[in-house]
Each structure stands twice: as C-alpha cells, then as structure tokens.
Structures
1.
Amino acid sequence: MPAPVFSWPPAKDEKARRSRLSVRSITIMIIIRYTYPAMLARSKNADYRRLVTQMTEVLMRFLVDNELLLESPYNADGSLNETFQVTKDNLTDDGNRLFREYFTRWSDRIDRGGKPENIASLVKGLAKIRATPPAG
C-alpha cells in the first residue's frame, strides 16, 4: 500500500480523513522573477503603463541579447508577448543570478526617475556573474 499523503486542513471525520489519504497531489511552485501582465495591472495611468512597457521591452531585449532566457518573450511577428512571465524555470543560471543580485538595483533606479535604457547596472552585474563561478 502506498504511503499516505497528508493534507491541510485536517479532516473533521474519519471518512473524510481516509478519502484524503487515498488522494495524491503534486504541488508545483513557479517562482516568478518578472511579470509584465501584473505590472500593467497595477495602474490604469497611461504614463505608468508606458513606462512599464518601455522597461519590459528594454529588459527582454537585454535578456535575449545575452542569452539569459530559455524561451522567447516575443510573438512570431516580433512583438512583445504581453502574457510572458520571466520565471526561475525559463531563465538560465546566469539569468537567475542576475535577477537575484542585480535586477532590483536597476528597477529601483527606474522607480526613482531613471531611464529604463540605462542598463549599466545589468551589464556590470552580468559581467561580474560571468567572471565568477556560481557558489555551491
């Protein structure tokens, strides 16, 4: 007999508990690094939405040009796929390190009025990542 799978919250009666024990479930966690749709949904302000689109286009171009994505963020016609999400699973190891260690600096600079096209922090961060072997 297979090992029981426990679920939360606990069942209130024995029959419900047994039925839960016989059901196996798998939970898959997707770690989202950047989501264009959620960024757009945060505001209906036209200036904000323009900035988010510009930021996303610059970021996707950087990721693609540096071969950090395992999937294309573009549609067949070359336009940006508006439902694309950057996840841990569709980034290379270097891409994941870039997001963990340097993306926030670039994003914070934009939030303080910087231009999305200023990717110097991403370029320098990627150079450091590629110059040092991954830890572990």
2.
Amino acid sequence: MPNVSITHEEVDAAISAMNTSRTEVIQPAVEAAKTAIDESLGRDLILPQTESAINDQYLILHGNLIDLCNAIESFANQFRDIKEGMISFDEQYAEAIRNPK
C-alpha cells in the first residue's frame, strides 16, 4: 500500500483551483458563448430551420456545460468535506488518547 501524505493546505489549494477555474474561466466562457450564439442566430443566420436546429443543439450543449460547472463545484465540496472529516478524526483520536475511557 502506498504511503500517502496530503496536507490541509494542499486540499485547500485544490479546492481553490477548482472553484477559480469554474467561476473565473469556465462559467464566463459558457455565458459568453451563449450570448454570442443568441446574438448571431436570427441576425447572421437567415435559415429558420437551420437556426432552430443549431439553437436546439446549442441548448443541449449549454446545459451540459452548466452540469460540468455544477460537477466541479460538487467535487470541490467533496474535497472540503474529506478535509473536514480528516480534521475531525484527528481531533477525536487525539482526545481519545489524552482521555482514555
């Protein structure tokens, strides 16, 4: 079994990186792309059926990208929960050693 060493700071850094990538890169890009598609359909593309088909497919893609953002947030929260569980376990174990029953 491998020896694993993870510090709380490393977990916090991973959580921060996930949340920063989500809020500062992915979500803004998703919304910018949606705005660009919304603005160009009906103005630049004058093929009603094609426009509708593109819009339908883009709405599916946009929904998937929103799901991705939510999954990143959920994964970051799982990291936070694991870290907090590790801290709690450490505190409980130390207390049991200090005050055995």
3.
Amino acid sequence: MSDAFTELAAEPPVLSYVLTEKDYNAMADAGRSRATRYLNQWAFWPFVILNVGFSAWFIGKAIQADRPVELAYVFNGAIAVLMVLGRFCFVPWMRRWHIRQSKLDGRSYEIRFGQDGVEMSAGGLFSRINRSEVLNYSETEDYFFFWINRFQAIIAPKRAIDTPQGEAALRAYVADAKWKKRW
C-alpha cells in the first residue's frame, strides 16, 4: 500500500440555467471572426463617415454650381444611412426574431460534461455531442462557448457555475479534452 496522495480530478459541474436573449447575443458576438470584428470596429464608421462626407460634398458642389443634384449623390448618402440602420436595427431585430422562432429564450438548460461527450437537455429536448465533435472553445468574462461549428456553440454561462472549484474543474475538463482556444 502506498502512502502517496493522489488527488482525483473533480468532476466538471453540471450547469443549469435559463437561456436569455443576452446569452444568445453573447454567443453571436463571440462567433464573429477576427476579420469581421476588425472590420466592424475599424472600418465601419470610417466608411459611413466617408460616404456621408462625399455625398454632402457632391451635393454641396452641385448646389453651389446651380446644377441639379444627381440621384447618385443622394444614393451615396442613403447607403450610409442604410448601413447604420442595418447594424443597429436590423441585426438586433433578426437575433430577437431567431431566438423567438427557435423557442430558445426562457428555456431551462442543463449541461453535463462526461468522458465521452457533452449532454445537453432543454425541456423535452436532449442532445449529446461527442467530445471529438467540439471543434474549439472560447471564453469571455461571463461565458464559455464550446463551438460545434462556425456559428453554433454550447453556451455555458459562468453564472451557472456555483463555485470556483466548479470553474477549475470545467477548465480541467477542457484541457483534458484538448480543445483549442478559438481566437
């Protein structure tokens, strides 16, 4: 008999939570690629401002020269307005529509991390994903996301992990599964 003490790895926590629109939006935001995030952050507003600026400049020049304003100048400004409306009105509306159509919002979820895979139940629905089918994972301040394809992830809110040991056990599970961190 050995006196050596070996600590068994703690079982990953069972996560129980109610999915909210905030959870769904966090997954959608986390799912954007680096290039998309870069373009949204650094190219969107300069492009909108340039569009409005060129449109105003062309319209101003036409008015100064006492020429009729060409429709192309107005369309150029309209494109900028449509871009802003699309980003801040249409995209949030589409997300809300999708979560309502999918009947996800307000549904109780339970996630179990096992040796062979991840089991998830939501009401009467049940799914099991083999560990090998999880492509990678990402982490934000409030969530873990386990990506099963480029656009879909298992959402694991950190609020559902009740102890620091539970978060450490989940991190150990992820390390054992050898999932790569996404971006």
4.
Amino acid sequence: MKSNGYPVFRAEIKYNEKTVRLLDQTVTNVFHPWYRLAWYAVSVALILIGIANGTSTLSFLLLALGCILFGMAPKAPSRRGSQLAYAMRGKTLAMNYSFYPEKLVCKTQQEETECAYEKIIRLVSSKNYAYLFVDKYQAYMVDFATLTPADQEKFCDFMNKKTGLDWTQPLGLGSINIYTIVRNLHSAGKK
C-alpha cells in the first residue's frame, strides 16, 4: 500500500546492546511481570533462610546470594533478551520510522515493513522512549529525542487517536503505584 503525501512524524532508533536490553526490560515489565516477581520471591526466600540459620557460613552465603539476586531483579534479562543483546555485541541496527496518516512504515538498510495502526495492541511510554507493541513479545521502540517535528505531546496524541489506545507506563517494582496499575489494567482491557 503506497502512502499518499508526507509523513506526519518521523523518528528513529538505533538498536544496540543497551536499547535491546531496555526493550526487553519493558516487554518483561509490561507483559510478563511474574518473571520479575519470581526473582524477588527467590531472593527474599534466600535472605529469610539466611537470617533464620543464625551465624553460620551457609547462612551468610544464602543472605549474600539473596541480596545479590534482589539487586539484580529489576534488570534481570529474559532468555530471549539475553540472546538478542549477545547478538548485538558491538553492532547497531538503525531503524527509521515514518508515521503516515494511514500506517507506520519502518525502514532499515535491508528492508521496509508496514504496520497498520490497528495492529498495535499497547502504547507504553517512558521518559525517553515510546514502545508500540504489536504483540506480547515485540514492539517498535521510538526514541523521543529523534521525533520530527519535535513535539512529544502531539506525537502521543496522534498515536492515541490512530490506535484508540491510551498510553501506559512500564511497571517496575520500585515505581508501582495503584494509579499506574489501574491505568494499565484499564488500557489492557481495551484491545
């Protein structure tokens, strides 16, 4: 389907090890929070067992291991994310986005793909990025700093109107509040 006219917005992302890890973290926090909760549960269990066992070397090791796992839990990659980040070592994939009134067009050096706005199932925004989810494992990641025209608010309104979805925020255990949970659940029920 050929686009008529010019895109309403343009943006890009440079996928590298860092952005792939951020994308994986967001996918996990949005659609698979049980994965993070399992990390926290195991780490808390190890800490409690370590405390309950007194002052033995084993209790100290369990306590230390539990603390290390607890600290790693917010950034623990999924298996798929680890594989992608490993594959990206030292490499960069630039993706250019053109947001036309009727569709999103994504271009790399190798290919061009199109995505109808109706195919997007969730809109998630963080401070620096927008995540346009097409399923529970894949999203287009847009760097807000690269938007042309540089108007994040208008871009978010445009995507809201085109998809019929509300923007949500990724859940992180350190930033969970009841308002964010209710808003995300409400948005999940729309599609």
